[in-house]
Specification:
Length: 224
């Protein structure tokens, strides 16, 4: 697989087969992904890989937390800016429409949509996950470095036949996740990532997210 194939075949997978991820592969890719660049080579990422009982515990505890809120548990950050504007707002809306159409969930089926969203917190059935943290003292440039790391990891996983879904939704329950992973207090949870082998028959994996045309985001200056 070349880089183009890895980029084109990576997609967010939201239903996984019940097939374990070899530990050696996960260790190798997590180490290799650190070849990602970072400003000043500060390498601000902190990763927790999880499988088995601790992973089950995280899902279980978050499920309980959703049932009974903890006033001391606050999201790490606002996932989107308030009043998202176009074209980003429409792009986000269209992703939801595409996904729920693939699942046959109607627009007004609020419960159906919520149930699908809740599958995030079951890792979409993935047998492994990573959680990505960053020191709270780091700023926006280092946050962007996390993206470099995470995309590199996802592409390396593709090369090994594995699939993934990055998940910001875990940042809503940092305290509950920390109750299992026990990260140092200065670390804040940026996102989780479910990892495993895609279920090829799952309808939710049967759509391809769209992209804005390059005119919407790229400017070519001084070219013919
Ligand atoms: C940092 C990050 C966080 C994300 N969080 C979630 C999430 O919580 N739940 C989810 O279903 N998808 C999540 N996604 C997946 C995006 O919805 C997805 O990347 C986007 O729609 C483009 O689709 P693609 O990944 O299939 O190309 C996240 C992606 C990124 C990069």
């Amino acid at each position: 697989m070349n880089v183009t194939e890895a980029v084109q075949s990576r997609r967010s997978v939201r239903a996984f087969l019940d097939k374990p991820v070899p530990q050696a592969v996960l260790r190798e890719t997590i180490a290799l992904a650190a070849r990602a660049p970072s400003g000043g080579n500060v390498q601000p990422w902190h990763l927790f890989a999880v499988t088995g009982e601790p992973q089950r515990q995280i899902a279980e505890r978050v499920a309980q937390r959703i049932q009974r809120a903890d006033p001391d548990e606050r999201p790490e950050y606002a996932i989107y800016p308030p009043k998202l504007w176009d074209p980003h707002r429409s792009a986000r809306f269209e992703l939801g429409e595409q996904m729920y159409a693939a699942l046959g969930i109607a627009r007004d089926d609020r419960l159906g949509r919520l149930q699908q969203f809740a599958r995030n917190y079951r890792f979409f059935g993935a047998p492994a996950a990573v959680f990505c943290y960053v020191d709270r003292r780091m700023g926006p440039p280092q946050w962007s470095d996390l993206g470099m790391y995470l995309q590199t990891l996802m592409l390396l996983l593709r090369e090994r036949g594995l699939d993934s879904c990055a998940q910001e939704c875990w940042s809503v329950y940092p305290k509950t996740v920390a109750s299992v992973l026990q990260p140092s207090p200065e670390l804040m949870l940026f996102c989780g990532m479910s990892i495993g082998y895609a279920d090829p028959d799952a309808p939710v994996n049967g759509f391809r997210s769209q992209r804005l045309p390059e005119e919407a985001f790229a400017h070519f200056v001084g070219f013919d």
